[in-house]
Design brief:
The chain is about 50% helix and about 10% strand. It contains 11 helices and 5 strands, in the order H-H-H-E-H-E-H-E-H-E-H-E-H-H-H-H. The radius of gyration is 21 Å and the shape is globular. The N and C termini lie far apart (about 60 Å).
């Protein structure tokens, strides 16, 4: 398949090794500034994906991210933050990386080249028709992701992707593609940079907008967050104080009794 892989095109900058640290940082920052504008162009695609994700989750579906390397790790980061932030079950949003958990820290040779493994990995999680699978691949050519999406399509499972190359195999395979064209990287081909930033921004949008639509945020507060450390407990107490006219001590007692900001406020109001 012939398409222009802009993520692999030569950097706009030459002789990076001759630049001062100040120039390196300024030029990297200059390139990074272009990423949000590239994401903005994809907002209609992201909106369609979020709407579909919310609809599926309302009937018991789950969200899966599949990817290799940096893309896989970004999916895992986003998925792992959903339970503590929004108080959802740990298996509602899932990140799967080619090569398994050991690939989170170290590259696993040839893992991304196995076109059959993603479906095997998804089956281990009991993938079902109501679930939605988002393939993450900056290049848009990762066999692991392509194979997983193709198999999901054949099983009538909703598929999406986050990629940075138009008309790429992944974009053409996914039913709800999100394509963010960031252009050449500062270091040629280093898609952990602008492409990785774009993917992280899109993932933030998908999970946050979905959880808000599912009622996991009240006002602008994470009222269902898990109280897993002292900082979050303190934040929860102050949230309660902002909702009802009580002092810190009483708010702390309510939070300890009911286990969440939402339940504490609801039970007090009753």
């Amino acid at each position: 398949m012939n398409f222009t892989k802009t993520t692999e095109q030569s950097s706009h900058y030459e002789h990076l090794e001759k630049m001062s640290v100040a120039d390196l940082l300024a030029n990297i920052n200059k390139e990074d500034k272009t990423v949000p504008f590239a994401v903005e162009k994809a907002l209609p695609q992201i909106e369609a994906l979020v709407a579909k994700t919310v609809a599926k989750m309302k009937i018991g579906g789950r969200l899966f991210y599949i990817g290799a390397g940096t893309s896989g790790r970004l999916g895992i980061v986003d998925a792992s933050e959903c339970p503590p932030t929004f108080g959802v079950p740990f298996d509602l949003v899932n990140g799967i990386i080619a090569g398994g958990d050991k690939a989170i820290r170290r590259a696993v040779e040839n893992a991304e080249d196995d076109k059959l493994q993603a479906w095997i990995d998804l089956q281990e999680h009991g993938i079902m028709e109501n679930d939605i699978v988002i393939g993450i691949a900056a290049s848009g050519t990762t066999p692991y992701v392509i194979g997983g999406l193709e198999k999901c399509n054949s099983k009538n499972i909703v598929t999406s992707c986050i990629t940075c190359n138009e008309e790429s195999p992944i974009a053409l395979t996914a039913k709800f593609p999100v394509v963010v064209v960031v252009g050449p990287e500062f270091v040629t081909g280093s898609s952990r940079m602008k492409a990785g930033t774009a993917q992280k921004l899109v993932l933030n949008m998908i999970s946050t907008a979905t959880m808000i639509q599912l009622g996991k945020v009240k006002g602008n507060k994470m009222v269902d967050m898990q109280l897993s450390n002292d900082k979050l407990v303190d934040r929860g107490v102050k949230m309660i104080m902002g909702e009802i006219p009580i002092d810190y001590e009483k708010a702390s007692e309510l939070l300890k009794e009911f286990g969440s900001v939402r339940k504490a406020v609801d039970n007090y109001n009753k």
